[in-house]
Amino acid sequence: MKQAVHIGGPAPAGPDLQELLGQVARGDQEAFAQVYDLVCGPVLGLVRSVLRDPAQSEEVTQEVLLEVWRSAPRFQASRGSGMTWVLTLAHRRAVDRVRSAQAASDREQRAARLNRTPAFDEVTEQVESRLEREQVRRCVRTLTELQRQSVTLAYYQGLAYREVAELLSVPLGTVKTRLRDGLIRLRDCLGVSA
Amino acid sequence: MSGTAELHTLTGAYALHALAPDERAEFERHLEQCPACEREVRELTATTTRLGLAVSVTPPPELRDLVLRRIATERQEPPRVAREARGAGGGGARGRALSRFALAACLAAAAAFGGIAVWQHQEAEDARAGASESRRASEALAAVLAAPDAQIRTGGLTEGATGTVVVSRTRDKAAFIASGLPKPPGGKVYQLWFDDGGTMRDAGLIPSSAPTAPVLMAGSVGAASGLGITVEPAGGSARPTSDPVALMDLPA
């Protein structure tokens, strides 16, 4: 189970994202167009998974991409890949949006979240995306039920761990631990190194 | 929250942005002293990237033009390192340059949420929707501190505290940094004023939560020759309602 399944992650053609971000940092708009092509699909997919609402998702996606442009000079490749940097920005923004909207809301509706599955089934024509999806899906299946629910509620739906605990009726400490050991198991299964 | 062992289990929740703001700040302080945790956070964050890639979609074609048009008119942020390097250079004005270097370092620390910057998440912090305004303020502050014509003056405030004011005449803006300033009495705030030849003009409040963080003074410097600080009721006043706790001349 600890064996990594490599089917080649996303392999962008042309200059890689790190290199492009370096050019963007120097104000290169053409390089930014290439960055856009590499990251927009993942950003929109992730934001949409958290927010659901298509119009809001596009709005937040635009904000994320503007942020990438603005803060490319501050990207440090030594601290993680370009895609990780971009998707961390995207997740953060989506989570902030969902939490501010949620402030006054809907405990009952949250119960419906349990039945929501991540949008693994959206169509995409890109082969590498399909492979990536297949690999992740397979690794997610290696998690225990509680690990899977905790990680997907937190990541794909942007819930805080306290909300996850409430929704699953488990102690806070248990959720903290499951988020960590769930991600560790995924890390090993996906062969992630940093 | 208590022990280190317990904090360590938060790597997963941190990588997933699932912590409450106060817990995140506490965990980030812990991260600075825990290389093993930091490494784990990096790996787990990279793992979440794979989860993100797995839900990639095909964006609507019109989004591309829209975004490319918008970036064409959007200013980029300066790299952090370059800003400090600028401040540290320049032999002739060395004293001043060093002060500005210290100010830049101070600013960098203050700009991060919770006062502590850790790693790439710092950039994520910058992206917090609610933070964009304070980020703009930080940028404006940085612009004053880094202005080629920035002039600095330091003076004594109340009770052994010192204040430093940085003025850029070309930008017509000033920044103020207090050191050792006690928190204001309950329900009160420190308010800054520009001294226009004896008339005090509102220049904004010093955040009570962080009285020693650098503040960009509100409004333009104009013909002001000095600044004053008063203690005012929460929210500030239109005119000073008490004697100044400090008065300083602005650098010429």
From TrEMBL, chain A:
Pfam families: Sigma70_r2, Sigma70_r4_2
Keyword Transcription regulation: yes
Residue stretches in coiled coil: none
CDD domains from the UniProt entry: Sigma70_r4 (cd06171)
Sequence ranges assigned to domain RNA polymerase sigma factor 70 region 4 type in this UniProt record: 133-186
Record bears the keyword Glycoprotein: no
Alphabetized SUPFAM superfamilies for the sequence: Sigma2 domain of RNA polymerase sigma factors, Sigma3 and sigma4 domains of RNA polymerase sigma factors
Keywords in alphabetical order: Sigma factor, Transcription, Transcription regulation
Domain of life of the organism encoding this protein: Bacteria
Residue span, RNA polymerase sigma-70 region domain: 42-102
Gene3D superfamilies in the record: 1.10.1740.10, Winged helix-like DNA-binding domain superfamily/Winged helix DNA-binding domain (1.10.10.10)
NCBIfam families named among the record's database cross-references: PRK09646.1 (NF007228), sigma70-ECF (TIGR02937)
Family to which this protein belongs: Belongs to the sigma-70 factor family. ECF subfamily.
Name assigned to this protein: RNA polymerase sigma factor SigK
Protein species of origin: Streptomyces camponoticapitis
UniProtKB/TrEMBL annotation, chain B:
Residue intervals of the Anti-sigma-K factor RskA N-terminal domain: 7-40
Ranges where the Anti-sigma K factor RskA C-terminal domain occurs: 107-245
Pfam families associated with the record: RskA_C, RskA_N
Location of the protein in the cell: Cell membrane; Membrane
Signal peptide: none
Residues forming coiled coils: none
Primary localization: membrane
InterPro entries reported in the protein's UniProt record: Anti-sigma-K/W_factor (IPR051474), Anti_sigma_zinc_sf (IPR041916), RskA_C (IPR018764), RskA_N (IPR053877)
UniProt keyword terms in alphabetical order: Cell membrane, Membrane, Transcription, Transcription regulation, Transmembrane, Transmembrane helix
Membrane topology: Single-pass membrane protein
Name of this protein: Regulator of SigK
The species this protein was found in: Streptomyces camponoticapitis
